[in-house]
Design goal:
By secondary structure, this protein is an alpha+beta fold. The strands form two sheets. It has a three-stranded antiparallel β-sheet. Strands 4-3-5 form a three-stranded antiparallel β-sheet, covered by helices on one side. Strand 1 and strand 2 form a beta hairpin. Helix 1 crosses helix 2 and helix 1 crosses helix 4. The longest helix is centred in the last third of the chain and has 31 residues. The two termini are 14 Å apart. 24% of the residues are buried.
Length: 273
């Protein structure tokens, strides 16, 4: 996460390294070095081990305060029972009291922000056919869709030979074209999500009966595609994914505005811009 620009730069002074004193504040709420240490511990338990984790931890704590302050305007701050229930699902293991408090604060802010997004942003987002198509293409490349694909592959093909490949009229025409150029075309049928990732990325958005560019002396051509029974079930998921991404983009822009309005003071040189 990017470092923030303070909305009001107040007097800053340097604290000794490893001090337990206040290293920053947001809207008057102090943030200590111990708070940042607790947050980096939680981040590590979640697999976040960036080299600048302490700066990221401070940013996260500031964001938590900003989110919670905003959520209070909508009576969207979750109670302790809800927070505890969600924390148990994370299975963070043994935590010190400071780490427990930090975990609760982080979870409370996350839930509050989700409520804000659901109440104020999600209802306003409109998804276009282009958004859904883009999401479907991204999923196809990354995970693959339940689409049966009949594909021709040519390997060890020189670039000058590949340049002679023209658009075929049919799959059989493509096979014969490859043979006429001295190639040994391979034809196979597979579900898109069963393909190796590098192959899937090359054919997922490839128009039918169109040779792909040469990569590693190989080209592909999609003869035909057929949606399986599973495909229909994906439509709702794809639409929800597109809706979620749009909502989170808007939410991120809103959070940036809230940060700019916040009064953030950095008292420790280690965390200054």
């Amino acid at each position: 996460m990017r470092k923030i620009f303070t909305a009001a730069m107040l007097f800053c002074f340097t604290l000794p390294a490893y001090s337990a004193s206040i290293v920053a504040s947001v809207n008057g709420t102090p943030i200590t070095d111990a708070d940042i240490t607790a947050r980096t511990t939680l981040m590590a338990k979640q697999g976040n081990t960036s080299t600048n984790n302490r700066q990221i931890a401070l940013q996260n704590i500031i964001d938590d305060n900003v989110k919670l302050a905003y959520a209070k305007n909508f009576n969207a701050v979750p109670d302790d029972e809800t927070v505890e229930k969600e924390l148990k699902k994370m299975n963070l293991g043994e935590l010190s009291e400071t780490e427990k408090d930090m975990a609760k604060s982080a979870m409370r802010a996350e839930i509050a922000w989700q409520i804000i997004v659901a109440r104020t942003i999600l209802p306003t987002v409109e998804i276009t056919d282009a958004d859904i198509a883009a999401e479907r293409t991204e999923i196809a490349k990354e995970q693959g869709l339940p689409i049966e694909m009949t594909i021709i592959r040519l390997i060890d093909i020189p670039a000058d030979v590949a340049a002679k490949l023209t658009k075929p009229s049919s799959c059989d025409d493509a096979m014969q074209m490859a043979r006429d150029l001295g190639g040994a075309p391979q034809k196979f049928t597979a579900l898109q999500y069963e393909l190796a990732q590098d192959v899937r990325e090359r054919v997922a958005a490839l128009p039918k009966l169109t040779w792909s560019p040469v990569v590693d002396r190989s080209v592909f051509l999609v003869c035909d595609t057929k949606k399986t029974a599973e495909y229909g079930k994906l439509d709702d998921m794809i639409e929800q994914n597109a809706l979620f991404k749009q909502s989170m983009f808007i939410a991120d822009q809103q959070l940036k505005q809230l940060r700019r309005k916040a009064v953030v003071v950095i008292n420790d040189d280690r965390y200054k811009l």
